[in-house]
Amino acid sequence: MLDETHQAILDLASRQVRVTTPDGRRIRVTLFEARLLELASPDCRRRILCQDFITQVRNALLGSEIGGI
Q1: Are 22 and 14 in contact (CB under 8 A)?
Q2: pTM for the full model?
Q3: C-beta of residue 35 within 8 angstroms of C-beta of residue 50
Q4: b/e map 15-36, b = 16+ CB within 10 Å
Q5: Measured between alpha carbons, how far is 49 from 22 in angstroms, rounded to an integer?
Q6: What is the C-alpha to C-alpha distance for residues 69 and 66, in angstroms, rounded to an integer?
Q7: What are phi and psi of 16, to 5 degrees?
Q8: What does the pLDDT profile of the chain (69 residues) look like in tens digits?
Q9: Dist. CA 23–CA 61, nearest whole Å
């Protein structure tokens, strides 16, 4: 069972957001996917924020695996 913090992080990561693609289309993706896309862009201005968010999601997933053992 996930603790509340891990669950809140995973819920936030799975929230749907709209992003604009390089060709100008607007698509819906999860917040986690949006942060990955932003981090992969050459002009990422919030690199540390994106990296921290991805790390928190990873830790929440690992914490859920450890807690489930």
Answers
A1: no
A2: 0.82
A3: yes
A4: eeeeeeeeeeeeeeeebbbbbe
A5: 21
A6: 6
A7: -80, 135
A8: 568 999 999 999 999 999 998 889 999 999 999 999 999 999 999 999 999 999 999 999 998 666 554
A9: 33
